[in-house]
Design goal:
The protein has one domain (about 1-275): 3-Layer(aba) Sandwich (Rossmann fold). The chain is built from ten helices and seven strands. The protein has helices at about 1-30, 50-65, 75-90, 105-115, 140-165, 180, 185-205, 225-230, 235-240, 250-260, and strands at about 45, 65-70, 95, 120-125, 165-175, 215-220, 275. It has a seven-stranded parallel beta sheet, with helices on both faces. Strand 4, helix 5 (about 140-165) and strand 5 (about 165-175) form a beta-alpha-beta unit. Helix 2 crosses helix 10. It is globular.
């Protein structure tokens, strides 16, 4: 029932927020005490992690003790910078250049991770692009590229994750709260993000018996270039004003929620779409 779904989503978000807050307090204490992150013996791949939500997620999971494979399509300097930052804090990381829309490149990404770290426990399918225009003005090439990267690319990553993530692991696909906002000019982009919610729900069922939790994460308006590029300050302020907190989300807000789902406390959240959007929908 629609009402039941809303209650379930609020419950899921409340649990994720509580776990996230507890994890953040622990990480802050460790940093204050001057300790390097203790390895938890696990490994995470985060696609599209040279900047924005992906970079914040890679750094957050590294603080939680994961060895990290950072991925980029072309921003090699930024990806290398994320690795240096993780290593400077006492963590372990590599970066691999791979276009997720190429299935061979995705296989190579996972191969490089295995060579470096021996396996993978968490995969965050974050890589994505956004092209905005009304239907009448949207270029064929822009639609095709969003489908190639956001939809097909995520499928290739999730397919490889289904084959390689170790039992008890986590798989997350980045959707977007635009699937609920459904604002003008966002149609094709929103469609590619809605696919992530279907992917996660079906894959969770296909991995039955392996104790791998698969979810979609749906951020709202987040202060990244993906969202802010091409918008006026007035447009950005208008989106921020629609949230109860009267601000944009920050990449770290999303990374904290992802970390909560990857923790031991997040295991029972499975096959869901978690809306981390500050209440904008």
């Amino acid at each position: 029932m629609p009402g039941q779904n809303k209650v379930q989503r609020r419950t899921v978000l409340a649990g994720a927020a509580w776990s996230s807050a507890a994890l953040a307090m622990g990480a802050a204490h460790a940093q204050t005490a001057g300790h390097a992150p203790a390895s938890n013996g696990k490994v995470a791949i985060v696609t599209g992690s040279s900047r924005g939500i992906g970079a914040a997620t890679a750094k957050r999971l590294a603080r939680d003790g994961y060895a990290i494979t950072v991925n980029c399509e072309k921003n090699r300097d930024l990806a290398a910078g994320v690795v240096r930052e993780i290593e400077a804090a006492g963590g372990r990381a590599i970066w691999v250049q791979a276009d997720v829309s190429d299935p061979d490149a995705v296989r190579r990404l996972f191969d490089e991770n295995e060579r470096a770290f021996g396996g993978v426990d968490v995969v965050v399918s974050n890589a994505g692009i956004m092209r905005l225009a009304p239907f009448r003005d949207m270029a064929d090439a822009d639609v095709s590229r969003m489908v190639d990267v956001n939809q097909k690319g995520s499928f290739f990553v999730l397919r490889e994750a289904a084959r390689r993530v170790r039992d008890g692991g986590r798989i997350l696909a980045l959707s977007s709260s635009i699937t609920q906002l459904r604002s003008p000019t966002y149609g094709p982009y929103a469609a590619t993000k809605a696919a992530q919610e279907l992917f996660a729900n079906v894959l969770a069922k296909e991995l039955e018996g392996r104790m791998i939790s698969v979810n979609a994460m749906a951020p709202g308006v987040v202060n990244t270039t993906l969202f802010t590029d091409g918008k006026t300050p007035e447009q950005i302020a208008g989106f921020a004003a629609r949230t109860p907190h009267k601000r944009l989300g920050e990449p770290e807000d999303i990374a904290d929620t992802i970390a909560a789902l990857c923790s031991g406390d997040g295991a029972w959240i499975n096959g869901q779409t978690v809306f981390a959007n500050g209440g904008i929908v």
